[in-house]
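From the methods appendix. Each design record in this collection lists the tokenized structure first, followed by the designed amino acid sequence. Records were kept in a plain field format so they could be parsed without special tools. The example shown here is representative of the layout used throughout.

RECORD:
FOLD TOKENS (201 positions):
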């Protein structure tokens, strides 16, 4: 009798165990469905995934992002012979320096050996604002170009950069000449030519 009672008890435990194993997955699924369906349709709840709403930027967020250089081709910012008032330059040379940095370089065509070498580069920096301009030894001089915020950074002994704000991006005019002063004069003239073609805002 004792043995029979022991078997019946073990059998009972096995039946209960099988019942729990079969119903537990159903209970988990029910809880997941309940959490996904909680709240109003289309409204994220604490148990729902935010991926759908986060992956669709709102029009307000896009509008508040402001101007950027992401769609700018530096070579199109200067018309044919656009720097003609500065010097005669050869064909523009485009290059992507790194991710988010594109440049277009103009090299002076020297009519004689006495002409000074001169290079002007227009550089779009999608991820860098003018407050990221670094001092390269000649100091930083905040100012403006045609009313647009700008920073002048002489780079001794022969260079100069004028960085112009385009929202949280910027466009640099970098010049290399006989000395930094001459390079800054050229960079300032070139910046005034390029600035009107930059996004406003």
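DESIGN:
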């Amino acid at each position: 009798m004792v043995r029979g009672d022991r078997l019946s008890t073990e059998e009972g435990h096995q039946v209960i165990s099988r019942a729990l194993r079969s119903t537990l997955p159903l209970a988990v699924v029910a809880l997941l469905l309940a959490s996904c369906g909680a709240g109003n349709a289309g409204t994220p709840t604490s148990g729902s995934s935010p991926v759908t709403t986060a992956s669709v930027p709102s029009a307000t967020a896009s509008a508040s992002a402001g101007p950027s250089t992401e769609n700018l081709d530096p070579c199109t910012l200067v018309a044919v012979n656009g720097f003609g008032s500065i010097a005669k330059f050869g064909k523009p040379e485009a290059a992507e320096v790194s991710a988010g940095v594109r440049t277009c370089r103009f090299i002076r065509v020297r009519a004689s050996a006495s002409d000074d070498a001169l290079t002007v580069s227009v550089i779009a920096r999608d991820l860098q604002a003018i407050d990221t301009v670094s001092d390269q030894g000649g100091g930083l001089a905040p100012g403006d170009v045609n009313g647009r915020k700008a920073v002048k950074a002489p780079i001794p002994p022969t260079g100069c950069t004028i960085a112009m704000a385009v929202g949280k991006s910027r466009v640099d005019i970098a010049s290399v000449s006989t000395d930094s002063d001459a390079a800054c004069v050229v960079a300032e003239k070139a910046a005034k030519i390029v600035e009107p073609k930059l996004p406003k805002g």
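APPENDIX NOTE: The first strand starts at residue 93 and ends at 98.
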